[in-house]
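Following up on my earlier thread - several people asked me to post the actual chain instead of describing it. Fair enough. Here it is, all 72 residues.
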Amino acid sequence: MVVPYANLPPAIRQSLPPLVVGGFAAGESGGTMVMVDDKLVREGDEVAPGIRVEKILVDGAEFAYKGYRFRR
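Reply from S.P.:
Thanks for posting it. Predicted structure:
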């Protein structure tokens, strides 16, 4: 289940670094990318230790961290 960032348990939110999600781009090979903390990443990439991009959406991204899936 994917939850909004604000609905994560307080201890999990406090242990997360700030994630700044910026623009989105479609790659020439059809892959979608998102800008996270000034880095262009794809689904499956790790953006910080233990934090993985699970899904890129048109208005944000879903991340996995310590067994939680959340949206930014």
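The chain has a mean pLDDT of 91. That should answer part of your original question.
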